[in-house]
Amino acid sequence: EAGVAQSPRYKIIEKRQSVAFWCNPISGHATLYWYQQILGQGPKLLIQFQNNGVVDDSQLPKDRFSAERLKGVDSTLKIQPAKLEDSAVYLCASSPNRGDNEQFFGPGTRLTVL
Amino acid sequence: QKEVEQDPGPLSVPEGAIVSLNCTYSNSAFQYFMWYRQYSRKGPELLMYTYSSGNKEDGRFTAQVDKSSKYISLFIRDSQPSDSATYLCAMRGLGAGSYQLTFGKGTKLSVIP
Fold it and tell me: In sequence order, which residues have a C-beta less than 8 Å from that of residue A95 and are 6 or more positions away?
């Protein structure tokens, strides 16, 4: 079974630039999550999708972050404009259903904002 | 006070030692308690989870939950160099509206051959 795929693996941008991350979840998984993991911290949920609908985006900074999951499969997370404090690893995870304790994580995209 | 507290370490032990990793929490609504392992430059992977209080064993790993003290533990017996990783505790409540996982900061463990 193929795991969660993410790209790019690394990205370096300057502040005020925009950036986009892509995630392809495990086939058949209805629930998709985007997390932000700042160095030395645990993952923090940014947004959760159930199929192509948003079920939780309470911690997403909506003035600069956006995400979509068209067709209920792969997903894109965008930051525009980026700030220095956005430097982090952005993890995508998926699970068969909401409420599953086991979430399957991708390798993450390491973002550095200069 | 953060909802979940976890000592970030680092923790360094010799091969074969018993390792104890711990988290405390403040939200009494948490019912599911998980331990994830994260290798360097990788995403977290679930080791095991428990529901409510009690113990659960899986091979060399034992998870304990004491809800009265709001304290959870992960024990690793006969630790191996391959156990070197960051261990994240995570927890959530029960039912719709409580599915979001709250993670600790993670404890970085090194097992020295």
Answer: A29, A30, A31, A33, A102, A103, A104
Contact A59, A44 (CB under 8 A): yes
Two tokens, residue B37: 């392992």
Residues B38-84 pLDDT 10s: 999 999 999 999 998 889 999 999 999 999 999 999 999 999 999 99
For residue A1, pLDDT beyond 90: no
Mutation site, B100, B102, B107, B108, interface A, largest A CB count within 10 A: B100
Higher pLDDT, B70 or B2: B70
pLDDT digits (tens, 9 = 90+) for B81-111: 999 999 999 999 887 777 889 999 999 999 9
To which residue do tokens 């980026």 refer?
Answer: A82
Cis? peptide before A8, omega within 30° of 0:
yes
Which of A31, A101, A102, A104 is the best mutation test for B, with the most CBs of B within 10 A?
A101
Secondary structure class of B2 (helix, strand, coil): coil
Task: Check CB contact of A30 with chain B, cutoff 8 Å.
Answer: no
3-state secondary structure B56-82: EEECCEEEEEECCCCEEEEEECCCCHH
Cβ-Cβ contacts under 8 Å, A91 against chain B = 43-44
